Amino acid sequence: MLPPSSSPAIRPTTLVEEPFRGTEVTHATLTPAGALLRLATYSTALLIPEGAIPKHQRHSVALSIVRDDKHHVPVPTGPRSTYLSPVVFCGPVDTKVNKPIVMQLPHCAENLSDWAFSLYSAPDNVTPWCKVVTIGEETLNTPALVQIDKRYAYVLTEAFGKYVLVGESATDIQERVACKKLRLFICGPSTVPEFSDVSLRVYIVEDNPGAEERCRHCEQEIGGVLLGRSTVLHFADVGQAGLNIDLQCVGGWRAKSSSERQTIPFSHVWNSACTALHCSFTLCRTEHDKCDFKIVVQASQDVPQGLDERLTAIGVPATLSISSFVPMAKDGRHCQHSSSSFETMTICSVGSGDHNTNLLATDRFRLSKDVKRKLCRCLDPPTQKRNDWRMLAAHLNVDRYLTYFATRPSPTDQILDLWECRNRDLNALQQLIEICRTMERPDAVAILEQIQPAAPWV
Fold first, then answer.
1. From CA 93, how far away is CA 85, in angstroms rounded?
2. Helix 411-422 with 369-379: angle, nearest 10 deg
3. How far is residue 399's CA from residue 172's CA, in Å, rounded to a whole number?
4. How far apart are CA 115 and CA 170, in angstroms?
5. How far apart are the C-alpha atoms of 377 and 372, rounded to whole Å?
6. Is a pLDDT exceeding 60 seen at residue 375?
7. For position 458, what pLDDT does the model report?
8. What is the residue-averaged pLDDT of the chain?
9. Where are the annotated coiled coils located (predicted)?
10. 226-269 pLDDT, tens per residue?
11. What does each C-alpha distance from 452 to 185, 339, 341, 419, 448 come to in angstroms?
12. For labeling, which of 18, 213, 265, 332 is most exposed (least CB within 10 Å)?
């Protein structure tokens, strides 16, 4: 063991740089004080709690979005399974922690109760994927737990590696129809030659934060740019109902082929495995003296009659239009999702709006080591009124994992680690105070209120 005055060497991030070169990545130095890594564009985060590694150790760790198609080895799932999150890597894979880490993954699932969710993992790009857990089938020996909220999944695990969330229609009670959200992007040249044809590409991607950047990345390799983005498209697991894409041109342009419609088979959309699915249209001029034009793209799914009323949004087409070949400005709205607004797998609870811009963008923890220690002393001991860590878990909608929390040295500590990652709103600390007040725990309220409002997270 190194003496306290020594400066320990940082262990290199082996198995990170080479296999995942070219991916979106962030690095941090992990110390016994923990670390919080964030990829804001992709609304992805990794929380490594305080005390996860021994004293006087320092590790270099990384969090990465794996967006290159060559890394997307198909997950060995059934024919009706579909990717719901980006592929995310945290490493090095040989990093050892003595407390679970918490990973935030965005997902595009709609109506959570219609889904059966599974988490898959692989340590690298050579080892085959394996299923870690299916939600609802957890045991005490399950190597990871997954909390599904309305827009995000939170993974608790002690293993670093590559992760992805997949899903299929639930069949536990009755046959259900799972629905995922997609978005279309139209791409093409930034300038249009006067006499040559123009090739446009329409990408169909999961409506997760970072979808825009994913398309930009694909277009950079061929010299194209993003020209427009569609409204949300709800795509359902309804058999062979494919995706129809219609393109209309006015103002001196027309589609070169005889048909302005392309149909993408259902299996190509549902089983795209995070690849950059797209179709192409070639346009030619009909009048060279016209400078004003408009291109309208509409996407829709052939929906069988008799679907549940909850899925009426499936029949609503997604549309986009452009009136110039000008690159689309970058838009950061898609990383402004509020994680405090959640619909869980066990208790449906909707808080503030889905698009809350008052998010805490920092790599600092909200609760200091001293505050967490005091809260654990308060809430870990069981009480006759059950207004202890068990009631805190219920108020935070994570009480389906009570058995797991009970096996931890400090249940409150683990619950607060999950809270730290799930709740990044500026008012989340005040909400936690109100929860403790509702629990009739003035001692916990007093501890939290001691945090100075001007600097509530140290």
1. 20
2. 130
3. 21
4. 5
5. 9
6. yes
7. 34
8. 82
9. none
10. 999 999 999 999 877 889 999 988 877 888 876 788 999 998 99
11. 45, 24, 25, 20, 9
12. 18
CA distances from residue 340 to 86, 241, 336, 347 in whole angstroms, order as listed: 21, 35, 12, 14
| The two three-digit tokens of residue 270, written as one number | 């549902």
Domains of the chain, CATH where assigned: 25-169 (2.60.220.30), 179-322 (2.60.40.2660), 369-450 (1.10.533.10)
How far is it, in rounded angstroms, from Cα 55 to Cα 158? 18
Q: What is the dihedral of CA 180, 147, 30, 73, to 10 degrees?
A: -40
In sequence order, what are the beta bridge partners of 210?
A: none
Residue whose token pair is 């799932």: 77
Which residues contact residue 394 at a Cβ distance below 8 angstroms, ignoring those fewer than 6 apart? none
Helices H, strands E: what count in the chain? 8, 24
Size of the chain in residues: 458
Q: Which of 14, 4, 33, 54 is nearest to 365 (CA)?
A: 33
Q: Are 160 and 213 in contact (CB under 8 A)?
A: no
Calculate Rg over the CA atoms of the chain: 24
Taking alpha carbons only, the member of 214, 271, 233 closest to residue 108 is: 233
pLDDT tens for 188-233 read: 988 877 777 888 999 999 999 999 988 998 898 888 999 999 999 9
How many Å separate Cα 366 from the centre of its chain? 22
* Residue entry with tokens 């941090």: 28
8 A C-beta contact, residue 117 and residue 84? yes
At residue 452, does pLDDT exceed 70?
Answer: no
Measured in whole angstroms, how far is the alpha carbon of residue 271 from the centre of its chain?
Answer: 18
Backbone φ and ψ of 120, nearest 5°: -115, 150
Interior angle at CA 97, CA 96 and CA 103, nearest 5: 110
